[in-house]
Design a protein that fits this description.
It is built from seven helices and no strands. The chain is an all-alpha fold and about 180 residues long. The termini are far apart.
């Protein structure tokens, strides 16, 4: 065999199927043929590039999921900060309980609106919030009558045991 014939022969390789080339039939085809060793190198480079492409796709998918997780975390932290600010402005007594109830109601909304959720919570559970200073809601009447003078004189006579206090009490009682 001649030297040019050996360059077009294929060497068997375990990973790559043998490349069968036909001898050139004309001058145009001879220019298109590549030596076998160079073809094997090109094939190995292509396989390496495909493997790297697969690894890069996997890495891109992981990074994309991390980005989505980070965005969700940022959104939830911003919402929590807004809820805390509104609950603090509304004078919430138990901030943790009020925050949890507000987060539940916001998560159930089609379009999350923190301000309306806090107002709804304030309306439904007023015991979680302090009352403004001017309002009095108690079981006692707002105006208490002073005790009767006879009662005060009787208490004074009982405490001191003095005869004059006892006489004052008896005089007031006769009237």
């Amino acid at each position: 065999m001649t030297e040019t014939a050996t360059t077009f022969e294929t060497a068997p390789e375990p990973d790559v199927a043998p490349d069968v080339t036909t001898p050139p039939s004309g001058p145009a085809e001879a220019d298109k043929l590549v030596p076998v060793s160079e073809a094997i190198r090109y094939r190995k480079r292509a396989q390496t590039a495909e493997q790297q492409l697969g690894e890069l796709r996997d890495r891109f998918t992981r990074l994309q999921s991390q980005l989505d997780d980070s965005r969700q975390t940022i959104t939830s932290l911003e919402r929590r900060q807004k809820i805390d600010a509104l609950l603090t402005d509304s004078n919430a007594i138990d901030l943790e309980a009020a925050r949890l109830l507000t987060e539940i109601s916001v998560s159930q909304m089609d379009e999350p609106d923190v301000a309306s959720a806090v107002n709804e919570l304030r309306r439904q559970k007023p015991y979680l919030f302090r009352r403004p200073r001017g309002t009095i809601d108690s079981a006692m009447a707002p105006h208490v009558d002073p005790p009767a003078p006879e009662r005060l004189a009787a208490e004074r006579a009982a405490v001191t045991g003095d005869r004059r206090d006892l006489l004052d009490y008896l005089r007031l009682r006769r009237r």
